[in-house]
Design goal:
Blueprint (H helix, E strand, L loop, with lengths): L4 H4 L14 E4 L5 H11 L10 E6 L12 H10 L2 E7 L3 H9 L3 E2 L12 E9 L2 E9 L5 E4 L8 E4 L3 E4 L8 E4 L3 E7 L2 E4 L9 E6 L3 E4 L2 E4 L13 E6 L2 E6 L5
Parallel strand pairs: 1-2, 2-3, 3-4, 7-9, 8-10, 9-11, 10-12, 11-13, 12-14
Antiparallel strand pairs: 5-6, 13-16, 14-15, 16-17
Length: 254
Protein backbone atom coordinates (compact mmCIF):
# COMPACT_ATOMS: atom_id res chain seq x y z
CA UNK A 1 0.00 0.00 0.00
CA UNK A 2 1.39 3.37 -1.00
CA UNK A 3 1.80 5.96 1.75
CA UNK A 4 1.74 9.72 1.11
CA UNK A 5 4.78 10.78 3.12
CA UNK A 6 3.94 14.48 2.68
CA UNK A 7 0.65 14.18 4.53
CA UNK A 8 2.34 12.43 7.43
CA UNK A 9 4.64 15.36 8.10
CA UNK A 10 3.20 18.01 10.37
CA UNK A 11 3.71 21.59 9.19
CA UNK A 12 6.00 23.71 11.36
CA UNK A 13 3.78 26.81 11.00
CA UNK A 14 0.36 28.07 9.90
CA UNK A 15 -0.50 31.21 7.95
CA UNK A 16 -3.54 33.06 9.24
CA UNK A 17 -4.89 36.56 8.96
CA UNK A 18 -4.79 38.67 12.13
CA UNK A 19 -6.03 42.02 13.36
CA UNK A 20 -3.75 44.14 15.54
CA UNK A 21 -4.59 47.37 17.38
CA UNK A 22 -2.45 50.24 16.09
CA UNK A 23 -2.10 53.90 16.89
CA UNK A 24 -3.19 56.10 13.97
CA UNK A 25 -1.29 59.33 13.36
CA UNK A 26 -3.44 61.43 11.02
CA UNK A 27 -1.31 64.13 9.40
CA UNK A 28 -2.92 67.50 8.83
CA UNK A 29 0.22 69.11 7.46
CA UNK A 30 2.97 68.01 5.10
CA UNK A 31 5.45 70.24 6.96
CA UNK A 32 7.23 67.49 8.87
CA UNK A 33 9.32 69.96 10.88
CA UNK A 34 6.11 71.44 12.31
CA UNK A 35 4.67 67.98 12.98
CA UNK A 36 7.84 66.89 14.78
CA UNK A 37 7.88 70.06 16.90
CA UNK A 38 4.20 69.69 17.82
CA UNK A 39 4.73 66.03 18.71
CA UNK A 40 7.68 66.87 20.95
CA UNK A 41 5.75 69.64 22.66
CA UNK A 42 2.71 67.42 23.28
CA UNK A 43 4.80 64.66 24.84
CA UNK A 44 7.36 66.87 26.60
CA UNK A 45 6.05 66.04 30.09
CA UNK A 46 5.65 62.34 29.37
CA UNK A 47 8.34 61.10 26.97
CA UNK A 48 7.66 57.46 27.91
CA UNK A 49 3.90 57.61 27.31
CA UNK A 50 4.14 55.13 24.41
CA UNK A 51 5.62 51.67 24.74
CA UNK A 52 6.69 50.54 21.26
CA UNK A 53 3.13 50.92 19.95
CA UNK A 54 2.71 50.11 16.23
CA UNK A 55 1.71 53.18 14.21
CA UNK A 56 -0.37 53.66 11.07
CA UNK A 57 0.22 56.99 9.30
CA UNK A 58 -3.03 58.32 7.83
CA UNK A 59 -2.61 60.74 4.90
CA UNK A 60 -6.23 61.31 3.94
CA UNK A 61 -6.19 64.96 5.07
CA UNK A 62 -3.06 65.84 3.05
CA UNK A 63 -3.46 63.60 -0.01
CA UNK A 64 -4.11 66.62 -2.27
CA UNK A 65 -1.06 68.53 -1.12
CA UNK A 66 1.60 69.06 -3.82
CA UNK A 67 4.36 69.25 -1.20
CA UNK A 68 6.49 66.17 -0.58
CA UNK A 69 6.50 64.55 2.85
CA UNK A 70 9.87 63.86 4.46
CA UNK A 71 9.02 60.33 5.60
CA UNK A 72 12.51 59.42 6.91
CA UNK A 73 12.43 62.45 9.22
CA UNK A 74 8.85 61.72 10.32
CA UNK A 75 9.57 58.05 11.03
CA UNK A 76 12.70 58.92 13.00
CA UNK A 77 10.71 61.33 15.16
CA UNK A 78 7.98 58.77 15.81
CA UNK A 79 10.55 56.12 16.74
CA UNK A 80 12.22 58.56 19.13
CA UNK A 81 8.92 58.67 21.05
CA UNK A 82 8.86 54.87 21.42
CA UNK A 83 6.46 54.08 18.60
CA UNK A 84 7.00 51.77 15.64
CA UNK A 85 5.68 53.13 12.32
CA UNK A 86 4.65 50.16 10.20
CA UNK A 87 1.92 51.18 7.74
CA UNK A 88 0.41 54.02 5.73
CA UNK A 89 -2.95 54.72 4.14
CA UNK A 90 -4.95 57.38 2.34
CA UNK A 91 -2.16 59.14 0.43
CA UNK A 92 -1.76 60.12 -3.20
CA UNK A 93 0.11 57.68 -5.46
CA UNK A 94 3.28 59.76 -5.09
CA UNK A 95 2.93 59.92 -1.31
CA UNK A 96 2.29 56.19 -1.05
CA UNK A 97 5.36 55.45 -3.22
CA UNK A 98 7.52 57.68 -1.01
CA UNK A 99 6.14 56.04 2.13
CA UNK A 100 6.84 52.59 0.71
CA UNK A 101 10.43 53.58 -0.08
CA UNK A 102 10.77 54.66 3.57
CA UNK A 103 9.75 51.16 4.69
CA UNK A 104 6.02 51.58 5.37
CA UNK A 105 3.51 48.96 4.27
CA UNK A 106 0.38 50.17 2.40
CA UNK A 107 -2.79 49.46 4.40
CA UNK A 108 -5.64 50.66 2.16
CA UNK A 109 -8.24 48.60 4.00
CA UNK A 110 -7.38 49.94 7.45
CA UNK A 111 -10.19 51.87 9.14
CA UNK A 112 -9.89 54.31 12.01
CA UNK A 113 -11.85 53.76 15.20
CA UNK A 114 -15.18 55.51 15.35
CA UNK A 115 -17.32 56.39 18.37
CA UNK A 116 -19.86 53.73 19.19
CA UNK A 117 -23.33 54.44 17.91
CA UNK A 118 -25.91 55.67 20.34
CA UNK A 119 -29.18 53.97 21.01
CA UNK A 120 -32.45 55.85 21.32
CA UNK A 121 -34.92 54.95 24.04
CA UNK A 122 -38.31 56.38 24.80
CA UNK A 123 -38.78 57.98 28.17
CA UNK A 124 -42.31 58.48 29.48
CA UNK A 125 -43.19 61.38 31.74
CA UNK A 126 -46.57 61.91 33.35
CA UNK A 127 -47.40 65.55 33.92
CA UNK A 128 -50.86 66.26 35.35
CA UNK A 129 -51.96 62.87 34.09
CA UNK A 130 -50.95 63.71 30.50
CA UNK A 131 -48.45 61.30 28.94
CA UNK A 132 -45.53 63.02 27.26
CA UNK A 133 -43.15 60.93 25.16
CA UNK A 134 -39.73 62.22 24.17
CA UNK A 135 -36.68 60.62 22.62
CA UNK A 136 -33.54 60.66 24.75
CA UNK A 137 -30.15 59.47 23.37
CA UNK A 138 -28.20 57.22 25.73
CA UNK A 139 -24.84 55.54 25.34
CA UNK A 140 -24.63 51.87 24.54
CA UNK A 141 -24.21 50.07 27.84
CA UNK A 142 -20.62 49.07 28.52
CA UNK A 143 -19.23 46.71 31.13
CA UNK A 144 -17.26 48.28 33.98
CA UNK A 145 -13.85 47.39 35.37
CA UNK A 146 -13.35 48.32 39.04
CA UNK A 147 -9.93 48.80 40.65
CA UNK A 148 -9.92 49.25 44.43
CA UNK A 149 -6.17 49.39 45.09
CA UNK A 150 -3.79 52.36 44.71
CA UNK A 151 -1.85 52.48 41.45
CA UNK A 152 1.82 53.27 41.92
CA UNK A 153 4.31 54.74 39.46
CA UNK A 154 4.93 52.39 36.55
CA UNK A 155 1.65 50.49 36.94
CA UNK A 156 -0.96 50.48 34.17
CA UNK A 157 -4.60 49.37 33.99
CA UNK A 158 -6.48 49.02 30.68
CA UNK A 159 -10.28 48.49 30.62
CA UNK A 160 -10.73 47.05 27.13
CA UNK A 161 -14.21 47.67 25.75
CA UNK A 162 -15.33 48.97 29.14
CA UNK A 163 -15.57 51.91 31.51
CA UNK A 164 -12.99 52.06 34.29
CA UNK A 165 -13.71 52.91 37.94
CA UNK A 166 -10.75 53.47 40.27
CA UNK A 167 -11.46 53.77 44.00
CA UNK A 168 -7.92 54.68 45.11
CA UNK A 169 -5.23 57.14 44.14
CA UNK A 170 -3.55 57.06 40.73
CA UNK A 171 0.00 58.10 41.57
CA UNK A 172 2.36 60.15 39.42
CA UNK A 173 3.79 57.83 36.76
CA UNK A 174 0.83 55.42 36.88
CA UNK A 175 -1.54 55.11 33.94
CA UNK A 176 -5.24 54.26 33.58
CA UNK A 177 -6.75 53.56 30.15
CA UNK A 178 -10.32 52.75 29.12
CA UNK A 179 -12.15 52.38 25.84
CA UNK A 180 -15.04 54.11 27.61
CA UNK A 181 -15.15 56.60 30.49
CA UNK A 182 -12.64 56.83 33.34
CA UNK A 183 -13.97 57.49 36.87
CA UNK A 184 -11.44 58.07 39.64
CA UNK A 185 -12.87 58.54 43.14
CA UNK A 186 -9.53 59.64 44.54
CA UNK A 187 -6.65 61.93 43.52
CA UNK A 188 -5.59 61.62 39.88
CA UNK A 189 -1.88 62.42 39.70
CA UNK A 190 -0.77 60.15 36.87
CA UNK A 191 -1.98 59.67 33.29
CA UNK A 192 -5.61 59.03 32.33
CA UNK A 193 -6.77 57.96 28.86
CA UNK A 194 -10.47 57.65 27.95
CA UNK A 195 -11.99 56.68 24.61
CA UNK A 196 -8.81 54.79 23.76
CA UNK A 197 -10.36 53.33 20.61
CA UNK A 198 -11.77 56.61 19.32
CA UNK A 199 -14.92 57.31 21.35
CA UNK A 200 -15.05 61.11 21.35
CA UNK A 201 -17.98 61.09 23.79
CA UNK A 202 -15.89 59.46 26.53
CA UNK A 203 -14.97 61.53 29.60
CA UNK A 204 -12.59 61.49 32.53
CA UNK A 205 -13.94 62.18 36.03
CA UNK A 206 -12.03 62.53 39.28
CA UNK A 207 -12.67 63.86 42.77
CA UNK A 208 -9.19 65.45 42.80
CA UNK A 209 -7.83 66.70 39.46
CA UNK A 210 -4.01 66.78 39.55
CA UNK A 211 -3.09 64.85 36.38
CA UNK A 212 0.22 64.36 34.67
CA UNK A 213 -1.49 63.88 31.29
CA UNK A 214 -5.04 63.52 29.98
CA UNK A 215 -6.17 61.99 26.68
CA UNK A 216 -9.58 61.43 25.10
CA UNK A 217 -9.91 59.69 21.71
CA UNK A 218 -6.31 60.50 20.83
CA UNK A 219 -6.50 64.16 21.82
CA UNK A 220 -3.78 64.72 24.40
CA UNK A 221 -3.20 67.44 26.94
CA UNK A 222 -0.01 67.35 28.94
CA UNK A 223 -0.24 69.59 31.99
CA UNK A 224 2.87 71.73 31.53
CA UNK A 225 1.43 74.57 33.61
CA UNK A 226 -0.67 74.74 36.77
CA UNK A 227 -4.37 74.08 36.38
CA UNK A 228 -6.86 76.88 37.01
CA UNK A 229 -7.83 77.31 40.64
CA UNK A 230 -11.39 76.11 40.06
CA UNK A 231 -10.22 72.61 38.99
CA UNK A 232 -6.75 72.11 40.50
CA UNK A 233 -7.04 69.49 43.24
CA UNK A 234 -10.84 69.59 43.06
CA UNK A 235 -13.64 67.45 41.62
CA UNK A 236 -13.50 67.95 37.86
CA UNK A 237 -14.07 66.31 34.50
CA UNK A 238 -12.31 66.29 31.15
CA UNK A 239 -14.24 66.12 27.88
CA UNK A 240 -13.83 66.93 24.21
CA UNK A 241 -15.26 70.00 22.56
CA UNK A 242 -14.45 69.45 18.90
CA UNK A 243 -10.71 68.68 18.93
CA UNK A 244 -10.12 70.63 22.17
CA UNK A 245 -9.77 68.82 25.47
CA UNK A 246 -11.67 70.81 28.11
CA UNK A 247 -11.14 70.51 31.87
CA UNK A 248 -13.98 71.89 33.99
CA UNK A 249 -15.23 71.64 37.58
CA UNK A 250 -17.91 69.26 38.77
CA UNK A 251 -20.00 71.78 40.67
CA UNK A 252 -22.20 69.15 42.30
CA UNK A 253 -19.20 67.62 44.09
CA UNK A 254 -17.54 70.80 45.32
Amino acid sequence: MAVDSKSAVRASFDLKSAELPVLAVALRSTDVATVVADLARRLADDPDFFDNDPVLIDLQHVQDSPEAIDFPCLLAALRSHRTRPVAVRGGSPAQMDAAHEAGLVPAPDATLARPKEREVVREVEVVREVEVIREVPVDVVRPTVVVDKPLRSGQQVYAKGADLVVLSMVSFGAEVIADGNVHIYAPLRGRAVAGARGDTAARIFTTCMQPQLLSIAGNYRALETDLPADVAGKPAQARLEGDRLIIEPLASLT
